[in-house]
Amino acid sequence: MAAPSAPKDKPRKWKYIANRWPNNFPEGTQQARCWCGDLCVPKRCDDWDDKHGRWFWMCPNYAYDKAKPKNPYDYPPSPPPLCSFVEWIDLEQDSHHKSEVTYEEQRKWNHMFELIREEEREKKLKIVREKQRLEKEKKEQELKDLHEVEREKKRERDCRAREEAEAEEDASKRKGKYPRWTQ
Q1: Which of 21, 13, 27, 66 is nearest to 39 (CA)?
Q2: Is 66 helix (H, G, I), strand (E, B) or coil?
Q3: In angstroms, rounded to a whole number, what is the distance separating the alpha carbons of residues 1 and 110?
Q4: DSSP labels for 13-58?
Q5: Parallel, antiparallel, or unpaired: how do β-strands 14-16 and 55-58 relate?
Q6: Which of 47, 7, 46, 42 is CA-nearest to residue 25?
Q7: pLDDT for 104
Q8: How many helices (H) and strands (E) does the chain have?
Q9: Dihedral, CA of residue 18, residue 20, residue 24 and residue 26, to nearest 10
Q10: Backbone phi, then psi, for 118, in 5-degree steps?
Q11: 3-class secondary structure, 159
Q12: What does the pLDDT look like over 106-138, one tens digit per residue?
């Protein structure tokens, strides 16, 4: 006779409670036996969904519950039979764990929205910084142009002053050695 297949809603994560019965088990709960005949161990589901906090029975030889040995010589000579027995003890999730799941979902949504808002803030700040940079470059260019215009005016004044000085010098050479009022 073949063993039945593992339940489809088996948890992905669980806590192992060795030799400890939870206090909230219903009265008269008996320790279950799995398909391979061993006594099952109680475990608590840690998935963040509608199974969070629920207790279930699991075979101690469960295929995915083995701790990896740290030394290759720690492997047993022959592996124990693997079993995929899982049976839920709690058929419904209690209100405490429901509130934990909703709180965790709300926290994740809030975190996601905060990340989106942060991205939007960074985009706006980047746009503002780009505008400031362009304005600064524009002002610097205007100052450069103004400075160049002033330098050009100074050069023109200097050229006119030189021309006038040369003209006066030429005129003074033609008239004589002393200024006109002394003559």
Answers
A1: 21
A2: coil
A3: 52
A4: -EEE-TT---TTSPTTPPPPB-TTSPBPEEEEE--SSTTTT-EEEE
A5: unpaired
A6: 42
A7: 86
A8: 1, 4
A9: 100
A10: -65, -40
A11: helix
A12: 999 999 999 999 999 999 999 999 999 999 999
What separation in angstroms does the CA of 13 have from each of 27, 88, 107, 116? 26, 14, 20, 30
AA identity, residue 174: R
* Amino acid in the structure at residue 55: W
Nearest of 142, 124, 146, 145 to residue 134 by alpha carbon: 142
Residue 17 contacts residue 44 (beta carbons within 8 Å): yes
User: What pLDDT score does 140 carry?
Assistant: 95
**Distance between CA atoms of residues 35 and 24, nearest Å:** 26
Whose structure tokens read 């509130």?
A: 99
Residue with the two structure tokens 């260019």: 141
